[in-house]
Design a protein that fits this description.
Layout: E1 6-10, H1 15-26, E2 30-35, H2 43-51, E3 59-63, H3 69-79, E4 83-86, H4 93-98, H5 100-120, E5 125-131, H6 155-174, E6 178-183, E7 186-187, H7 196-206, E8 209-213, E9 219-220, E10 223-224, H8 225-236, E11 242-247, E12 253-254, H9 255-266, E13 271-275, H10 290-296, H11 304-316
Parallel strand pairs: 1-2, 1-4, 2-3, 4-5, 5-6, 6-11, 7-10, 8-13
Antiparallel strand pairs: 9-12
Helix pairs in contact: 1-8, 3-5, 5-6, 7-9, 7-11, 9-11
Length: 321
Amino acid sequence: MGDTDSVLITGGAGFIGSHLVERLLGLGRRVVVVDNFCSFYDPAIKRRNVAAVEGQSGFTLCEGDIRDAAFLDEVFGAHGFGCVVHLAAMAGVRPSIADPRTYSEVNVGGTLNVLECCRAHGGPRLIFGSSSSVYGVNEKVPFSEDDRVERAISPYAATKLAGEVLCHTYHHLYGFPVVCLRFFTVYGPRQRPEMAIAKFIRLIDSGGEVPMFGDGTSRRDYTYCDDVVDGILGAMELSKEFELINLGNSRTVALRELIGLIEAALGKAARIKELPSQPGDVPITYADITKAERLLGYSPNFPIERGIEQAVAWYRAQPSR
């Protein structure tokens, strides 16, 4: 076991990871970030995400790829960790259909490398960032951790489910504690630019056409980034040996309603372009957060109306807008 105050965050320059980095540093923890700054979206965005903490006491950035087992082993060997938060992944349902091989190499192969390093370096606590996409087309709502999840409908979902199974396997064989957190559509400042809320804010503000896939009735459980970070911090302190836990807002919002909330926050009308539903998209996501409330003391503080206002305020403050 490494330094119990030291935390490794894979993908720590990304959207969720960078918020977690800042929170942990504020709590006095030592943080090591592994990120490869890949070109899935502009690497300059991720570099800006961590620019404010570079040079700060307790922060170390190790640039490299989780697919590189030797690199990861060097990081683990050089630092030692009490906790690993594994967020690095290829994200997104639709891109995974176009490039399933890369998604498998990163999300399955990379996760296996992280688990092997945990095994070889004393078994730190592992938090694995999973996804609500593992529930597939689940007719039972809200989605519970006890629901069947073997019917993924996108390569992305399949890779996240595979990651959960690998995590359980390594916990069973080697005993180190693991919590798999199923994130439900996380949004807020620094959200990846291709994700719906960030993209819609940008398009509505600039007068561009907003692509609406389907008839606007699909529903999502949108979770503000600060609430998700609260859940991750709770999971880092959890004494359980292995758990699957939903992190959502436990409220669904229709696509048309979401667009309307962004219009109201911006004070501008959207030009909507209606498009066919996309393969791999599910009609609804909806988190049962009873377990998160009970085990983590999780209580979302950002209803969608407040969260959208925060996201728009951050967007308006960006000099590159």
